[in-house]
Design brief:
single chain, mainly alpha, 12 helices
Length: 318
């Protein structure tokens, strides 16, 4: 960490990032309701964010260094595709089909997957509390899905949520073994550039203009009386829904450890649940709410279960 520890300021930055990411889940759902496909929305978010972050780097009098050698090229591409390209797409699919809080909570199980993988794959020692974390997470997931009544959640949405978790876990595993002295801002900028290139091949940006971006669209739910043009919502998605919270959390990493940032950042699925309830009138049963608490507890336990921490300096949000 470049700067000294400042727990209060660092925590505040993470909270700001989590709140903006949570609100962005609602904005993203409105854009999708207006007819913008998940793939196109992912392209817009990745491309716009890559352009803005690149501008920030240049404004700081810095420049991005081209990767050298096959290993570094693979690292940059792996970061971009797993930590940004796939996570963003799975995220959009999940929030389109699930209550936003549950969608984000599924993605946030990534630390549990990481701890299990390093124990099984790398044979890295983990504290015995990992089993408590795993039990809490699995039990919580069962409560959230109300499995005794048959799966009450959209199956594709659940798969997308776990897909986001797997992609994010892969990103962390690549990051902690590949990133050392690199600037976190440069790393995440490179990742978004790769993701933008990837998604422009899959779903080129011009497809966005098949939708009339100037047509006012209702914000639905409790904000159904408010209408905003799609282009304005897309600006929020890129600037206040991605760039600002990313920079806030990157700055927090100079003041807190990656584990601390991850733990405070767990406010994001909580915030998304509040957004879903207040904005989209989503309701969860008491059992589902208890399940969410159990999952959050399991994630927190898993975050601290590893004996050796080589966490990456970049903790991406959504």
């Amino acid at each position: 960490m470049a700067a000294g520890r400042d727990v209060r300021r660092g925590s505040l930055l993470v909270v700001v990032g989590a709140v903006l990411f949570s609100i962005n889940a609602g904005v993203s759902r409105v854009i999708q309701t207006a007819g913008v496909a998940s793939t196109t929305l992912t392209t817009v978010r990745c491309t716009g964010t890559a352009l803005v972050l690149s501008t920030v780097v240049l404004a700081r009098g810095e420049r991005l260094r081209l990767p050298r050698g096959g290993r570094e090229v693979a690292r940059v591409i792996g970061f971009g595709i797993t930590g940004v390209a796939l996570v963003q797409w799975f995220y959009f699919v999940a929030i389109d089909r699930l209550p936003v809080g549950i969608a984000l909570l599924l993605q946030f199980t990534a630390p549990v997957l990481v701890a299990l993988f390093v124990w099984i794959g790398y044979r890295e020692p983990v504290r015995s509390r990992i089993w408590l974390g795993l039990a809490l997470s699995l039990g919580g997931l069962a409560l959230v899905a109300e499995v005794w009544s048959g799966l009450v959640l959209d199956g594709l949405g659940v798969l997308a949520g776990f897909g986001a978790a797997a992609a994010l876990a892969t990103y962390f595993l690549i990051g902690e073994r590949s990133v050392s002295g690199a600037s976190p801002l440069h790393v995440i900028t490179e990742a978004f550039i790769v993701a933008a290139a990837f998604w422009n091949l899959v779903s080129p940006l011009p497809r966005l203009f098949h939708t009339d971006l100037t047509t006012p669209t209702t914000l639905v739910g409790s904000l159904g009386g408010v209408q905003l043009p799609i282009w304005l919502l897309l600006c929020w998605l890129v600037l206040l829904g991605t760039v600002v919270p990313f920079i806030a959390e990157l700055t927090a990493l100079q003041l807190l450890t990656a584990t601390e940032v991850g733990l405070v950042g767990m406010l994001e699925p909580v915030g998304a649940t509040v957004v879903g309830w207040a904005w989209f009138r989503e309701t969860l049963s008491v059992v589902q709410l208890l399940g969410m608490v159990a999952i959050l507890a399991g994630i927190a336990v898993a975050q601290t279960a590893r004996v050796t921490r080589r966490s990456p300096d970049v903790v991406p949000g959504v």
